[in-house]
What we know:
seven-stranded parallel sheet; Rossmann fold; Helicase/UvrB_N; hydrolase; about 30% helix; DNA/RNA helicase; about 500 residues; alpha/beta; Helicase_ATP-bd; hydrolase activity; six-stranded parallel sheet
Amino acid sequence: MLYSEQLYTGKPIIVPEALAQSLIDMLPISECTFNETLPKNKNYPYVQPLQQFLQHKRLPINLIPFEIQVIHDHYLNGFIRYQKGLIKNNNEFQCQRCGNHDQHLFARMPCVRCKKECMYCRKCLVMGRVNACTMLISWCGEETTHIQNNHHCDSLLTLSTGQQTASNKVVEAIQEKKQLLVWAVCGSGKTEVLFSGIEYALNQGLTICIATPRTDVVLELAPRLKKAFPTVEVVSLYGNSKDKERNGQLMISTTHQLLRYYRTFEVMILDEVDAFPYRVEPMLQYALNQSRKIDSSLIYLTATPDKQLLQSEDLDIITIPARYHRHPLPVPNFKWCGNWQKALEKELLPYVFVSWLSERIDKNKQVLLFVPHIRTLEQVVILISELDRSVTGVHAEDRNRKEKVERFRNQEIMILVTTTILERGITVPNIDVAVLGAEDNIFTESALVQIAGRVGRSPKFPTGVVTFFHYGITNEMVKARRQIERMNREASEKGLIDLK
């Protein structure tokens, strides 16, 4: 679409070509100069369905199912904001939707809208194309406010002392619009820590988003939130979600879907802040910051914060160093297994690992085994099947991953071999965990702490064995064990675990 530059009440504006009186001197929006917003006409009878659709979002104009005349009338009356999809400074482009300014991630294509070779952003292409001629539309008029109500959390769970302390800090952060890190060990029940804060925010009429890098977490948490807050409409946002066009007071979203929102959320809760891809993707960090209201609270949740987060300014930190069942975290054992890669080339498993695994097979104990690469996984599954046929492997590219994990949970599979794809988000009551090749670079301190956190999560089975099989101890292995020992020490000093 092309636009005409005009003056309106003395201010520079643009008019879409479909509404322009003359098609002379039409330009792509990237070359236009105009006011993004105009003074609000408080007497203008805005269209409520448009408000409900567009409120809190920032979308390309082609995704808005309303007539261009209706959209433009709202712009002229100060209820809609026009923004360029791409802006250009010092001959460099930046995408307004995802924040990308890496020039290698822009490309040109013949464009049917502006009839030119048009620059577009490749970074956020998965969310739909943003060209240099794309207009982004957002609502800046009257907002629908959530009524202050008497919502009540129906969760019957009694919080542990550590959980309750953290829960109080979450409420305080929301009240004072602060930033807070809840550093909670794996299996400490961090989701339940949020409930009092969510209840407070709902009753204050605040808009809440729980964001997470992984779709699996959205699908897991949505039913728990609906059960805890039955009087609230919970909106779930992920790639194939049916809720994408809906707004709600309580939303749970992948960090990718936040690209669709702009200055929306008064309470932002980021679960698994250190998880892939959020921790390595500036686009997702930009999306989260753009989706928050400027005056809002931001709460991070993780068991493994990185140094950058821990050193953030104006960040309060509260730790939950113990699980609610009051047992210490299992501390990893290190076992040297020799050159395991050469052993696999000879179609053998390291003897010390076979001995460890055979002991579990004899006791009918389930095992979750982590390996560094898919190729290794395939080799190991074949070799283990000679010891026990109840074995399978899963990785990120496995189409049957969910079914296999469910069979493992149901004890239909006794040994599950996996890559780091399952370092988070899997809870099986009574398992031992091993890492074969723990010295590999993929096993960072964070990954190893998360892997160790798969063991001993259930009150019925609060203990278990974690073993790192290696061909040389790494700093990451040592740091992971020290972090777990440090949390156990802090939990003991605070009286949060029972030492026998």
